[in-house]
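re the bet — no i am not wrong, look at it urself. input seq straight from the record:
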Amino acid sequence: MSTTVETAATAARTAPAAVIVAIDGPSGTGKSSTSKAVAAKLGLHYLDTGAQYRAITWWMITNGVDVDDVGAVATAAAKPSIESGTDPAAPTITVDGLDASGPIRTQEVTSKVSAVSAVPEVRTRITELQRSIAATAEGGIVVEGRDIGTTVLPDADLKVFLTASPEARAARRSGELKGKDALGLAATQDALIRRDAADSGRKASPLAKADDAVEVDTTELTLEQVIECVVTLVEEKQAAA
């Protein structure tokens, strides 16, 4: 009996501490790729909050809601059922039971998601969903977005803010969109800058770096270097817990 108790106690001491990691930053900084890889390496859950805002935007578009009508968007915000799978190897997003992983990545959704995301009722709805997912993620979770460390999970164990030059971000985003809704490099950079302005300037939960976040400039780093940097930060936080 004592051996069993000692073994259990030893396992409890050596098991990594559950940790909630918030990774924020503008588009094209490597948030999604980094977050998924970090979660996979450390055995954590993963949540792409941007996909949730894209999902509700796609629902608005497909259901004929005028996304430029703040009142109409606010009224409809509670209607769609949005569910996010948190397996970093195969994250999922469904809307009213339908797989929305492809439709939410169209240029139409991309061009309208900032307007929908700026509506307070939308942010309240999605923020509550995100907090619920993070609170029930056994073992810990990596949550990526634009207001995670400042608004959604201000008490996260670790906050990371990824940045990169506009040129580097545009090059990465153009590569991601190749063969889909590809834009020229200059047009992509312009779109990113406009998205930054919209996200940073909105009244409800603007894109911002939390005061206690660790800033990582990914401009000159490879994806693997960024991943290793964040993994190290998480492991240090777990060791100190």
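see?? The chain has ten helices and eight strands. told u. also Residues 85 and 91 are 5 Å apart (CA to CA). so pay up
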